Amino acid sequence: MSTQTASYIEAIEHLPKGAILRLPQVSWEEYEQLLADLGDDYHVRVSYAGGWLEIMSPLPEHEEFADVVLGALVPFRVTQPSFYIYAAF
User: Which domain holds residue 44?
Assistant: First the structure.
């Protein structure tokens, strides 16, 4: 874990539910390292575009909705391997 990604993780740990943290001038390598360091242990959304890193801490009700949707779709996907779902948000 690099010093920079350790700082990002520390910021994530203090991020309130529903908050969005946007950081400029982040390299692609830092973004990939952060994803590797986070693993599956953190329930945040992380995105990268044009040097900007965006970290969002979803509200609990959004996580519940995702669990319901994924719980309904994953078994369907397993039984229908040629079926693809595209979100239009």
Answer: 3-59
